[in-house]
Amino acid sequence: MKNKQTIAVAMSGGVDSSTVAAMLRADGHEVVGLTMQLWNQRRLAGHEGMPEAVTGRCCSLDDVYDARRVAETIGIPYYVVNHEERFEREVVRPFVQDYLSGRTPIPCSLCNNHLKFDQLLIVARQIGADRLATGHYARVEFDETRGRWLLKRPADLAKDQTYFLFGLTQEQLSRTIFPLGAMTKPEVRELARKHGLALAEKPDSQEICFVPGGDYKRFLDAYLAEQGEALPDTAGELVTSSGQVIGEHSGIHNFTVGQRKGLGIATGSPLYVIQIKGDSGQVVVGSNEELYTRTLLARRVNLIAVEDVVEPTRVTVKIRHRHEGAAALLEKSEDNKLRVTFDEPQRAVTPGQAAVFYDGDVVVGGGWIS
Predict the structure, then answer these.
(1) Residues 57 and 203 in one domain
(2) Do 183 and 239 belong together in one domain?
(3) What is each CA distance from 229 to 46, 101, 226, 233, in whole angstroms?
(4) Proportion of the chain above pLDDT 90, given as a percent
(5) Residue 56, pLDDT score
(6) Has residue 220 been placed in a domain?
(7) What is the per-residue pLDDT for 52?
(8) pLDDT (tens digit, 9 = 90+) per residue, 174-210?
(9) Would the pLDDT of 54 be above 70?
């Protein structure tokens, strides 16, 4: 960007967003740092087996401190925007409800799509900023031929975060920039060192901000107890794909599609969870081969590269963040859903996760697996 602008930077307290703020400031832009306070890390401390203190994780108080320190180092104004109430309503509660109904949610996508970009762009406009910049590894550009803003994969594919950004709208993309899209992580750390940022060596956060250690069950127990709500009775039968009852379980929230351990039954050959029936409470188990399927339906679809899927379209589809992506045919289905038919069967297609559609490096769009 050659023209000097006022740019709001979403500062998470990590090396990526901190480097974005420093490089934009060095380029002569008016930069304002914004951090969203989303979850009180001490809220459930010591409750229902939760750790007494949670530090060094995404969106923690430590991160707010680190972001403020970076802002002071590079000489920019800095603000913390509190959205704890909305985060709980639009991310945490749906996360809990999904697990209790047998789905496996992705809170980071919910947060990006329904909270972070929406609210940060509002704040950016209020403070007179032309654009919002983040430390995501992705690229955005305007395609004159299509007349649409495109979301594209970054240069460093190992850090590709487009899977979590499939819900961004044309308006949001038009006001968002991803300065790290053409850089690799080692290059970003080196740039952080050059700018004298104390957190240049800070490790990346890998965990969901409100689930310490990735222990979803422990979090559900603690959260519901804090809310004065009893854990719903979702106990039921363990059944085979043919309907044979082979055991019982204590709750569907203890399982996810593809799970092998912790089934509580012993058989001569390995069994995996192949389906979770939230309406009946049944957990269907079977062989590894039964985990593979060729089709899925995506609901609540957001299209980016095209306005509509008019005819069957060839795409590459990712069904998990670390999934390599598989060739498939994308076509309209009933009830405003899109049907994905893979060329080759895919393992553990999981309701509640996202299916994101790609055309090369371009994100066509994405939706939630039914």
Answers:
(1) yes
(2) no
(3) 18, 16, 8, 12
(4) 71
(5) 45
(6) no
(7) 58
(8) 999 999 999 999 999 999 999 999 888 988 876 677 8
(9) no
State whether 55 and 196 are in the same domain: yes
Residue 65 φ/ψ, nearest 5 degrees = -60, -45
In this structure, the strands spanning 338-347 and 292-303 are antiparallel
Active site residues: 111, 209
Integer CA distances (angstroms), 342 to 68, 113, 184, 328, 348, in order: 47, 26, 31, 4, 13
Dihedral (C-alpha) 345, 368, 240, 99: value to the nearest 10 degrees?
140
Looking only at the bridges linking them, the beta strands covering 176-177 and 148-152 are: unpaired
Task: State the pTM of this model.
Answer: 0.92
Residues 103, 70: one domain? yes
Residues facing residue 143 across a β-bridge:
148
Residues 200 and 324 in one domain: no
Number of domains in the chain: 3
Total length of the chain:
370
Q: What is the CATH number of the domain that holds 21?
A: 3.40.50.620
pLDDT for position 50 = 66
Range of the domain at 256: 233-286
CA distance to 66, 297, 307, 328, 341, per residue, from 313 (Å)? 45, 15, 13, 8, 11
Positive or negative, the CA dihedral 253, 215, 323, 152 is: positive
In a 13 Å sphere around the CA of 322, the CA atoms on its Cβ side amount to 2
Q: Is residue 117 located within the same domain as residue 94?
A: yes
Q: Any idea which residue has 């594209």 for tokens? A: 152
Q: What percentage of the chain exceeds 70 in pLDDT?
A: 94
Residue 338, in any domain of the structure: yes
Beta sheet of 272-277, edge-to-edge order: 245-249, 236-240, 282-286, 272-277
Question: pLDDT by residue (tens digit) across 205-239?
Answer: 766 778 877 788 888 888 998 898 988 899 999 99
Buried-exposed string 8-28: b where 16+ CB fall within 10 A, e elsewhere:
bbbbbbbbbbbbbbbbbbeee
Query: Rounded distance, CA 31 to CA 5, Å?
Result: 8
> Is beta strand 338-347 parallel, antiparallel or unpaired with respect to 272-277?
unpaired
Q: Which one is predicted more confidently, 41 or 59?
A: 41
